[in-house]
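Summary for the funding panel

The consortium committed to producing paired sequence-structure records for every protein in the target list. Below we show the first two records in order, beginning with the earlier of the two.
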Amino acid sequence: MKNDEARRRKTNEIVYRAQAQKTLEDVLFQELVANYGFEGMKGIARPLVKRILDLVEEYDANHALMRPGEVLWLAVDKDRKFDYGMATCLCKMKVVKLQVWTQDEIRRLMKGEGFTDLLPDRIARLLKSAYAQGGVLSLTDVGLLVGRTPHYISQIVRTKYREQHPDETLPTIGTVFDVGKSITHKAIAVRLHLQGLLLTEISRRMDHHPSRVQRYIDDFQRVAELIDQNVAHNRIHFITGLQPSVVKQYIELYERCKREADDYPIHETSVECDHATVSGSDFSSNAMPEPDDMLK
């Protein structure tokens, strides 16, 4: 068994070694060594190439320098309103630059990991990379980039990636814009609020502007007040103007919290209203609640 594994790793190393060396950095390195007298100065050539690439990227005003293995892709602007059923042509788009394969992923192939083994991390990297640039990819986008169907990508996100990263919610169209069947940011924000976190901390963890998080909390409190007034659940979305799916999540979250602590007045909880600007674009959070647990 060990011999088979060793042979597989050796074969993969041979198959993917050339691919791992197909980078702009390697092309420039070979140029210096072959044509500019750096044969005996390879230790200098490599850091020199890296410094040149750093300078080119630093002084590229539009950051539009494309490198081998990169593609330009149209994503939905994360700061624009997006409703379920809205035609793509009506959405504001954002051009993002994505790396189809990274050198780290190719090295993992060389060490014997399979394409399927790498897929959860590749999907997450593409989604996070687009989001960091101000865009949101759909699962169809990701499927086209990795050569899989949207349904398959959805299964990977909901099963394998969630098993490996239970405290993380990936930035997809469903989670960012609260459409479809995904666990929405609205429910996550409210859950964190009910756990006692201040508005600024919730905004930082979710990479959301405080005003948007405040709106989620206010909407939840409106739903909670209507429940306490014994308004029929099927009428709440008419009164509030919220989507039925969102109202359903708020009701389930309210009822669960009610069961956990009957003496806790959810809709009377005070809210910290510090509208500070959120900095940074790291979407992931090591302290994010388990999404599935929120609505059980």
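The next record, for a separate protein in the list, is shown here:
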Amino acid sequence: MTSELWLGQESGCGVQEASDRITSMKRILSLMVPFSLLLGCENVHREESSVPKDIAENAVTSVPKKLVVLTFDDGNISDLTTTSPILKRHGFGATFYITSGWVGKPGRLNWEQVKKLHDQGFEIGNHSASHPNMLHISEDEIREQIISFDEACAEHGIPKATSFAYPGGHHDRRMVRALAAQGYLTARRAVSPEYPLYDRGGPGPAYNPSEDDPFLIPGAYVRGDLSSNDQEFREVLSRARDGSICVLIYHGVPDVHSHCSTSVELFTKDMQYLKDNDFTVISVRDLSKYIDVTKRPKDIYESLLVRLGISPKALKCDASGQEPVFSWKIKTTRPQTQSAYQILVASSEKNLNSDEGDLWNSGKVESNQSSEISYTGKSLATGERFYWKVRCWNDPDEAEIKRVSNWSAKEILSEMGKIRVSKYSSVASFSFE
């Protein structure tokens, strides 16, 4: 990834070891995966994993809290001169995604230096041959972008990559098929479509291996001098729990291009924070020590699309007046608002858990209002406790969809424009005096 990820402009160990048994099984499996991937496409659900059940279960349950994956895009010379020494000092792993056509250009690594990063134990990943917007090229050209990189690495004594980073973070089903056919195991995208793609970088979703396809690993944060908010950065890192993993995206330290550059001071501070707070920091390759990267969902985009809606949070009921008044806040990671809501009020939590509003069911109300909504249901007895919840429909932001249209697959753009209903909120209660 490079500045093209940030609005598509042309411009990128502290490991807690799994058991020896798991590691050896994974190594055997890695030799088999290219053949198994050729037997299907991204829509095929592998009901029976080729990993023995006990091994797969152990791998999934062994994801530690505070697991972070470090990635660096484009192949800046600072990867070797600045970044590598800092990582080695802390014992951190990392993946360096190289654009083979940029190797040897001003400010970029040459092949000898790429090989040196490999020899130091870091993973070398494929970031295409020329960093095009791959949404706008043919399937044959997609394949050529992948293979040309592989051939260049082989020519310079660098092992074939098993991980790919989409140029600009832009992805579609054709790319996933091509990568699987070439024996790749994983691919990293950026923060979209769940989060907006901004030139400054910023937050994205955590990687949830139980939901996300290994060819669509999201970036949890695109870090740089334009996205240097420490509070936001640390909040993102706090999501590395309960089986979720934070994948961090950096470019050069510093970078050839100022808008995606990270200062040495900021990077040093970030790495020290990870070290001081006991994060486990690994490469993409090392994910296989914790998860089964061959396990894939029925549909590669299902988990992403579910996240495009809104949800209600922070429910509040003011029961001090003649009738209760309800309010909530909207949670969304994208520019969009609320188009409708539905409130249920029940006499018992049991009724509400069955979606039975025996005291009031507002029905679907077309409105962007989410505060000061008066109760209009059955009479409420004073001194008793009542239960309520709400669900909401989103109102897609057409201007935002248009803004990202050049960097999003047509399928994704269509899904961004759909109205989706959220799940009901958690149950809240109130008493009417």
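Regarding this second record: Confidence is low (pLDDT under 50) at residues 2-60. The radius of gyration is 24 Å.
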